[in-house]
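Hey all, sorry for the wall of text incoming. These are the three entities for the joint prediction.
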Amino acid sequence: MKHRYSHKSLSNDALTMPEMGAILLSTQFMAAPDELLSLSINAGAVAPEGCVLLAMLGTLIVDLAGEKAASRWAPPICYAGLGAALLLLAIQWDTPLEPSFLGAFLADKLAIAFRAVVALSTLLSLLISWRYAEQSGSPVGEYAAILLAATLGGMLLCGSTDLVSVFVSLETLSVASYLLSGYMKRDSRSSEAALKYLLVGSAAAAVFLYGASLLYGISSSTNLQEIGIALLNSPTPLAALALVFVLATVAFKIAAVPFHQWTPDVYEGSPTPVVAFLSVGSKAAGFALALRLLVGCFGAFDEQWKLLFTVLAVLSMSLGNVVALAQSSMKRMLAYSSIGQAGFVMIGLVCGTEEGFASMVVYMAAYLFMNLGAFACIILFSIRTGSDQISDYAGLYQKDPLITLGLSLCLLSLGGIPPMIGFFGKIYLFFAGWADQQYLLVIVGLVTSVISIYYYISVIKMMVVKEPQEASEVVKTYPPIQWKTIGLPPLRVALISCVLITAIGGVLSNPLFQWANNAVAGTPLLQEAIELTTQRALV
Amino acid sequence: MDASLPIRVASQGSVPWLSLIVLLPAIGALLMPLLPKEVNSGSNLPRNLALGILLADFVLILGVFSNLYIPQSPELQLVERINWVPFIGLEWSLGVDGISAPLVVLSGLITLLSAAASWKVESRTRLYFALLLLQASAQGIVFLSQDFLLFFLAWELELVPVYLLIAIWGGNRRLYAATKFILYTALASLLILISGLALALSGGEFTLNLGELTDRSFSGTIGILCYLGFLIGFGVKLPIFPLHTWLPDAHGEANAPVSMLLAGVLLKMGGYALLRFNVQMLPEAHLLLAPALIVIGIVNIIYGALNAFAQDNVKRRIACSSVSHMGFVLLGIGAIDALGISGAMLQMISHGLIAASMFFITGSFYERTNTLSIPNMGGLAKVLPITFAFFVASSLASLALPGMSGFISEITVFLGITSQDAFTSLFRAITIFIAAIGLVLTPVYLLSMCRRVFFGPRIPALAIVNDINPRELSIGLSLLVPTLVIGFWPRVAINLYEASTNSLAEALMRFTT
Amino acid sequence: MLESFSGPVPLQAYLLLGASLFCIGVWGLINSRNAVRVLMSIELMLNAVNINLMAFSSFLDGDLIRGQIFAVFVITVAAAEAAVGLAILLSLYRNRVTVDMERFNLLKW
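and here's what came out:
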């Protein structure tokens, strides 16, 4: 075990150290203070986050000027901030890699890809939020500011390479998410969802911290890479315990079964645009964290965490998709389906090959558009009718073809029906899994995606197949469609662009695949892990 | 899997004819939503557009196949290869050989006629014809694709259109039938994907190109496992006993044009895929398992026929007869010689025409009587003499009357089995004997249905109906005339595919020695 | 083995204290019906972590005191979390007039 992996900065005597060294740190990793200071801060790496931060402050300031000013100015400020962030991320793509903040943050391509997914999901969630927030009578400015804070946390989390920065950004994301899910102050369901989310989330954070403190004790360092090296030198049972603690938190963040219990409740109670963000942005950040921690830090426990994640993935895919069958609420169904979808992404994580990681990135990007497209449709429906029940969608074809078409395409894509983008993403995941001989995972994935087709198509059946006389009461009294109301034009933009990308993006998906492969190829962390995997395969 | 490969077109001519053939209907489907919304559901515009596009497509198919396609060559022709998503091995790779050519012509004809037969579809016509066109594209890609993933994509693509066509415009139990159809097909495609993946990843470099996969030999367990996966996956479509239970429901509940499409084209996709994958790609496993295929075929023939007796619904009875007839396709494929495979091909073509015409006639008198239940009908012959004539004619074709295409194909299958020396003579004798029983059962249930529907006391409720109109007459004739032509002059059809089936059989023979 | 770190109190003692505090926190988290007590239990868990961090920092990390810095961050974030938690609890209390966890059953748990 110990000798399979060697690192450049590792001298041989580190391997022959007595068992004591498990807890002790060998002196060569301890950089002297003056050495640390000589490292440049390289704050440019977090310029995109800076833009988001500025947008957040700007939104808070206009919020002070009253609600009118806030609803007038908050949207453009948010667009500008997120747009600038995305632009800076694109510029960062080709800059040489250099750690920032004394090794606490690393803007490698993996981080950039996941940060882009998070920022884009916020942008789309914001576009679909305005009308919803306006209608529920909550201040728009505050809402946008908290969402931006969550984004800030999520983006930082994608690039964090130090336990402290991981913890701080994780909590920024989490605390902002608690606030968001409790944002409908007068709705006791919303508050209840927020409290449950908060309690479970903080407990998970505490568990993570306990694991982190053990890791710190083992390696006397908080830097993930250094911890990884220390663990390779001496994979003690204590380190395995820390792995379990940390893994539980990661599983909680990506809502893997059996750490999923919070998801359906939180998704059902929270305001729908928030659910849209949580199901995509927060989850993407969770996967980035999983890659950083498990791949980057627990290389020594490669087989163990892969085994655990195989179990989690199988459970998530089966439970998420099977329980989704029985749901009558649209939001709850999407909540369970998102658990299942996370299970699919985990296939790529478990593979640990070039294709595995690339397929994760591809699927996350595809999932971003198809899931947010579906959410845009159900938000529009609930704005017009105030309902989330699947049975209320009966006969919608007659009254609102746009929602029907958009929701149908997005759900088919989630179910993996060609030629939608989800099909290509899923196929890539399954190919990667099969090539890495994860037969169980691929077969479970295929079977559960057939199950998922069943419940997705039953929604489509509800909307498209029902005759006008079978339409639900809600649809019979459907309000006339108008797009002039404040907040609806951005929603339409988001809806149409998501649906278009979902429908056509699959056919034109080659650039996406190329991009994902570049991202993986340009990330040293992942390349090392791939090398390790191939070495193991050869042995 | 090389991402930097430039896009290359290796088409023989400068015009990508095959792409044009498969993409034309899809373009039409995309145009459908742009048509003005039907104000009071009487607009003919969607139907006319669909008919125009399908007619143009059919003419294009005929033109391309008669001028550019060389039937004497067993090679893959008119090949087009464009890299699409190289990371998952997806290629836009089309090509035509003898196995696909007749089926493309058949599916072009049947789709055109089923669009023409959709006269009575008055609600949501834009959606209906858009789905029909999408389905036409998907089946075209299935028959012409030379890339496994493209094939699979098209195979899955036709899932949703057919589901919706059954679920929206079908009969009373349409939702049940449609759901059953989609679950069966989706589960089956799962096996197809796994088998294809296993083949692509075993034995050398990752490839999904059908030609390259054929050139490899898959021996041992992996070949047999993949063969079984494909057999079950495609067997659901074909259908083979006991995976057929979706078929009577789907065919029975769909409206007549969709039933035509299901029986005329969708079942052939199963047979085509069996030939393309099981026989062409896995010859060793096929030689090993061919007797099993024959046994399944016999069970299909007998079971389908016996099941047909039990059906009180005209369409369900025809659907069960389809199960029985597709058994002959299995027999032919299992015969592993040139005659048998040729018979299987001909049986697919002939059954496509005959089943479509039977469903069409059934639909035409259903429009008049509003019932499909055999006990509720009677005495229709006097009111609907031409319909009666048509129905009897297609029944006769279906029961393999000499002079009709069914006779030629079934006799070829029999000859194929008897001339196959690889089987023991006892096995051959039993096979022929049982299949002959099936052949005898067919006239019994078909003609008894004719008698009960068209003769006997007239049911008063069905008093006032008009006979068939010229439009229906011409559709019916366009299905029956080819049946007769093939019946008297089978070379018309056989020439199209003979070179390919012969080379397929030769390839199989090479493995026996 | 750890005796070599001679001091008035060995490292294990601190770790033991941390572990038991953490367990008490988990126990409280699972068993409390009152939402405020649940919040307090979480605070207890976080403080257990702080003890761990401080112990490791002073025993193992020499001059770098990274554990102490970490602990400061934990304290700060814990305060923010508690503030948000109490705010959410307050808004829930306004809606439901109770802080009993078992009455929060509008959502299928």
